[in-house]
Please model this.
Amino acid sequence: MATRIQLSIQNSLWLLSSPLHPINTKGLHNLKNRLCFRSNLISSSSSRRALYCTCTSSNLPTAEPYVITTPLYYVNAPPHMGSAYSTIAADAIARFQRLLGKKVIFITGTDEHGEKIATAAAACGSSPNEHCDVISQAYKALWEDLDISYDKFIRTTNPRHEAIVKEFYLRVLANGDIYRADYDGLYCVNCEEYKVDEKELLDSNCCPIHLKPCVARKEDNYFFALSKYQKKLEETLEQNPDFVQPSSRLNEVQGWVKSGLRDFSISRASVDWGIRVPNEDKQTIYVWFDALLGYISALMEEKGQATLQTAVLSGWPASLHLIGKDILRFHAVYWPAMLMSAGLSLPKIVFGHGFLTKDGMKMGKSLGNTLEPNDLVQRFGSDGVRYFFLREVEFGDDGDYSEDRFINIVNAHLANTIGNLLNRTLGLLKKNCQSTLVVDSTIAAEGNAFKDTVEKLVEKARFQYENLSLSSACEAVLEIGNAGNLYIDEHAPWSLFKQGGAASEAAAKDLVIILEAMRIIAIALSAITPSLCKRIYTQLGYSEDQFNAATWDDTKWGGLKGGQIMAQPKPVFARIEIQMEGDVEGELKKKASKKKERIPQAQTQSRAEA
Model:
């Protein structure tokens, strides 16, 4: 069958024929023999020619992988909730895509070069390498605690990554897009960026993001000819309105581009901690020019030749770059132009999500007002943290954290609506049916409108997941739980069991119906709260392996079968109980008073006298 392959095939053939990549020509000849292009399928009026490839070898892949990336996090300090939010969202999307049966490559990692890293290491009395090792490990540990299912973790200090950066640099140089010049202007150390448009700065030349003064610098640098790609970027944004999302971010990027692009410095003479510019001892490659390439270098296997060819053929272009809106310019302007210069495909989507705020301000390491994610996970568990931020923050917008709201939402949705519904239903099943389903769920729901309600909500959840509307996806699944609670309250199976006969049989079917809805919830919400959903699934009599093997197709009604034995009921999500400081003091005083009452009077007097 014919498979449509656009720029990824062009990348591959360009790489195979590039003079920068000497290869075995016999292997190239064999590959070309297996690729038969049908040029008659290409419209002559199309400004972007698409290549169609008929693959005659069964060894060639039949589908592109779904490649999703988080930012590569800067290791000047340990992870904060802002970086955790990006990664939780990316993980939810990756898990959903796996449920659809896609091969997913989920990339995250750490950006470990630059002036800030060297400064942070010196402040701790360690070398940059030692500092990077510690902070990078802190990210990995947090990702484990948050149930992050990444496939690739790239560190930009990896020698294989360095090889890719240098090869990419030489390719852009060979294309005539790198030149040498002096730079004289204001520089934000925290952004690692020259501020070419001083009108964007606040009073006293403060950075609008980090609220710290920029410093004047003059140095000899290498520059990337960004202005050369002005028209191409304008056309790309115009012809591909889904390239930058949400639409508010697209408008912002189009505004930047239309206002005129300026060439930017891609090397630093004053920074030693970085990748050396090829054939240049006194310059290191700009940290962003270095780090952005981590999305490509991460695709390589740990062994084998470290080349752009092998990396690109392993999955590029990315399906989705998930980033914070503060680094949108780097990903939606600089990065596409760099890729164009190197002859590589652009990522399919760049999604800039909003900020998490605390007290109305963006949280960030440089601002010193971070929310500690490790503390949240230890206090409330990974499911609560994941659910709250994905449910309560409309993806793409800003969101504010409030502990009271966190506790109220998590308790109401996970402990009550979902957890309590499962627990009381299993309790009734144990008491009246020996924890055994009396009939298949398909039979139990015959002619029942509840089944139709669940099926519509499942479709709604899928639609929202596919459109990156994670909050709405959570809401759709929660509606299944709400419908289940309403159903069980209206049918009151506890009363029907007492009546016996046909009423008791109807009650037993009602329990099957509710438990089937819980099975569907466990799959549909597993991208958001994987540990909670695994606990639900195992209480329904399944193994962990069966849960891990579940796909979105398993959200279809009819999974539970008659005779299936459920596990013993126990809470799958405990309510969060937080005692206020005054309550704690009051409780201590009560206990002290009771203890005093139990002490004999004579003993009390002797202590007072002493």
